[in-house]
Amino acid sequence: MTKTAALIILVLAFALGTSALAQTHSEAYKDNLFSTGELKPVDSVLKVKVGDRAPDFTLPSIAGQMVALGHYRGKKNVVLSFVPAAWTPVCSDQWPGYNIVKDLFDASDAILLGITVDNIPTLYAWTNQMGHLWFPVLSDFYPHGKVAEAYGVLRSDGTAERALFVIDKKGGIRWIDVHDINKRPPLESLVRELEKLK
Amino acid sequence: MKRILVLAVAAAVAAAALLSGATAAAQGVQPRPGDRLFDLTLPVPGERADRNYLGLSGWGKTFRMADIKANLVLIEILSMYCPFCQKEAPVVNRLHEAIEKDPAAGGKIKIIGVGAGNSSYEVEVFRKKYGVPFPVFPDPDYDIHKKCGEVRTPFFIAVRLNPDGTQSVTHARLGAFGEVPAFLETLKKAAGL
Questions:
Q1: A131 touches chain B (CB under 8 A)
Q2: Strands of A96-170, DSSP E
Q3: Quick one: B61 and B9 in the same domain?
Q4: Which residues of B touch A99 (CB under 8 A)?
Q5: d(CA A107, CA A197)
Q6: Are residues B13 and B105 part of one domain?
Q7: Three-point CA angle B60, B65, B70, nearest 5°
């Protein structure tokens, strides 16, 4: 019976593992995206909640500056967009969407900060394929994933979750979406939260 | 007997899972010239201008390719999130304008977009941002995208609408289609214009 059970598990695992993951690839990246396959939807435990003060941080940007969350306090609402990794399918088709809706962020007096745990050269090469991004892209590479860890969105394999945090001008967290890593968050969810800041 | 039953159930579940995976992964292959188009049913657009453009009449909630009044339809598989689709949008708009101004092609060649993985909201953001004059349909669950072989974007499929109600792919291309006048001539030829 043990052999039978093992066979059943093997067959089921194979069959289920062949289910395709729906996603698009922009031709902008040619054949350079690494297919991750389907991943565990969420693999971390949040360390902050709505109403908390957002943990402060300072990270290097691909533009060569140091960007501090505290810099925006009292001036701008902030959206943090953590994406898991450069050169992967869903991540590569997330920020280019935000790139064409600057007006929606402006309307809510909000800035977007894109963050991954990749190093600066990797982020530079990757985001160059997206065209000119209007928002800062920050590297949480060293100490590895320190900011992601502070927010509780660092996965066990060292990548970040696909997570959005909306932070108001007082530094308070107003909305959190730790999304299924395999799927892109619908734009309208974020825009709905941005509109609440007006 | 119990073991046979367990095995039979497991086999059935495995077969269903395999079938589902196969459907998702290989439900369609990338269209090629000469192919018949996959079955494409779309929601009737809410905007009257879009319905008029496509020549749709009646009260149905959905329509099929054969319902479009045209000799040829150019389908663009795109995504609001795709940098190349964004870059190509003004070029496709120029093609639309050239078609409408062309005495032979105007009203005979139509363009539609399909936003792979895009919600209705995201598709409208794309249309508004780039002033897209032709209908773009959401494909939030990638159903159409899967039917056409999960192509990269943008992907262009020119489809001739045959008198017998079938549709033949005359052109399939990944990425930019190049100069508008030359591509328009290609489409006109394929449309028999």
A1: yes
A2: 110-116, 137-139, 162-167
A3: no
A4: 83, 86
A5: 9
A6: no
A7: 110
Question: Between helices A187-196 and B120-130, what is the axis angle to 10°?
Answer: 80
Describe the crossing of helices B83-101 and B180-191 by its angle, rounded to 10 degrees.
60
| B106 closest CA partner among B135, B70, B76, B133 | B70
Number of domains within chain B: 2
SS3 A46: coil
Query: Which helix (H) or strand (E) element contains residue B139?
Result: strand B136-139
In this structure, are B56 and B22 located in the same domain?
Answer: no
- Specify whether B133 is located in the same domain as B61: yes
Q: Please determine, for residue A1, whether its predicted confidence score (pLDDT) is greater than 70.
A: no
Task: For residue B9, give its domain range.
Answer: 1-29
Render pLDDT for A165-178 as a digit per residue (tens, 0 to 9).
999 999 999 999 99
Query: Which of A90, A82, A86 shows the shortest CA–CA distance to A120?
Result: A86
Residue B153 pLDDT class (50, 70, 90 cuts): very high
Q: What is the C-alpha separation between A183 and A86, in angstroms, rounded?
A: 15
The answer to whether the peptide bond before residue A185 is cis (omega within 30 degrees of 0) is: no
Work out the average pLDDT over A11-25: 50
ipTM: 0.83
Every domain of chain A and the residues it spans: 2-196
User: Is B18 within 8 Å of chain A by CB?
Assistant: yes
How is domain A2-196 classified at the architecture level of CATH?
A: 3-Layer(aba) Sandwich (3.40)
Q: Write phi, then psi, for A170 (nearest 5 degrees).
A: -85, -5
How much is the pLDDT for B2? 53
Same domain, B48 and B58: yes
B83 → chain A, closest CA residue: A130
Residue B9: pLDDT band with limits 50, 70, 90:
very low
Q: Where are the beta strands (DSSP E) in A83-172?
A: 110-116, 137-139, 162-167
Of A12, A23, A96, the CB nearest to B86: A96
Do B145 and A22 make contact, defined as CB atoms within 8 angstroms?
yes
Q: Which residues contact A107 (CB under 8 A, 6 or more apart)?
A: A194, A195, A198
CATH number at residue B153: 3.40.30.10
Mean pLDDT of chain A, nearest integer: 88
- What are the φ and ψ backbone dihedral angles of A99, each rounded to 5 degrees? -65, -20
B106 & B170 share domain: yes
Just list the catalytic residues of A: 91
